[in-house]
Amino acid sequence: MRGRSLRRRAAVISASVLLAGALAACSSASAANAPVRLNYWSFPDNSGAIQQAVDTCGAASGGKYTISYNKLPTDADSQRQQLVRRLAAHDSSMDILGLDVTWEAETAQAGWIEPWTGANKAAAVKDTLPTMLQTATWNGQLYAVPYNTNTQLLWYRSDLVPTPPTTWAQMIADATQLAKEGKPHYIEIQGAQYEGATVWFNSLVASAGGSILNASGTAPSLGAPALKALQTMSTLANSPAVDPSLGVQQEDQNRLAMEGGSAAFELNYPFVYPSMQMDNPQLFKHFKWALYPRVYPNMPSHVTIGGIDLAVSSYSTHPALAEQAILCLRDRSNQILAAVKGGLPPTLMSLYSNPSFIKAYPFAAAIKAALLSASVRPKTPFYQNVSIVISHAVSPANGINPTSTLGQIRGGINNALSDKGLVP
């Protein structure tokens, strides 16, 4: 009985295998004419702009490809960690990668993303903001295509401050005076121990005329501008102008504080504009913008540039189609969509003089001015380590001792560049 049962089971299994083979053959035959599915990994966009672009580009490909939008975690550190782990495992399900502007050096150096050449490179470079092309370039080679950019403006309440301050000292003084009058007065900025604190420090260093690393990215370059940056951060953190929750504040907490009516100033990205318009229409009437404050009255500010660059994974089995899809995803119409719907500034220069875009994006001129003079974060494969050193040293900001904190940052960066304690 047992032998007969085994033979019967074997026959069933054999039949199942033959049937599966036949189905697979049919599937392969039909799949030969089906569009290729490209997997696109990027930040989670809640506005719907990315999904709309994905659907539009798939439909416009003429049946060559469809795009599957895979959402990464919300915070940048977790996004990077997931991408790095998949790339290190040579994951062939990764085709298009949405990279934060600080990840290109690391991923290119590791051989995880493909360089752009020929006609597609020319198309990627044409009309693109020079500062964003810097973020997408490593060792003189273009490795990604700027999809959107980002930079901070000073957002303020015109009912409290008729004329916006032009320097950090003026802004702190204005906020202190409002506090004395018992009015909303907080200055909202990213002070939590994460990338936002590094961005704040980098913007101040650049605005004071310096940089965090030398030109070759091989050593710290921290002198008087870095000391001035730390003094500015400490001054705010120990003044009446500070939000008591500065040490845990990130971009969204800043937005909520401003919308809630407790703040007079906010250093933040353009996503706050459509959010204020929707969440607090009454306060929106007084919600204005100006350029990021200067550190010194006679020196323009240089705000840290942000954004997303699109790269082709070295492990994609369809790199040529992935490049075509990227050029579609970042074309004029999709950049306008991302800007108006999602609040993310475009990377194409000509859009900033487009009347219909300016009407929908009234602060376009201020964004363009900030982007053309923007600063780029330190370009090094060890950027993650450098950023962690800085954010841990400057947060909480009320604990900054400018001279000793500067020494701490310098020593930590030297270790980071020596690959000591690399963050996986």
Automatic annotation (TrEMBL):
Pfam families: SBP_bac_1. The keyword Signal applies. Keywords: Signal, Transport. The keyword Transport applies. Residues 1-31 form the signal peptide. Gene3D superfamilies: Periplasmic binding protein-like II (3.40.190.10). Belongs to the bacterial solute-binding protein 1 family. This is ABC transporter substrate-binding protein. It comes from Trebonia kvetii.
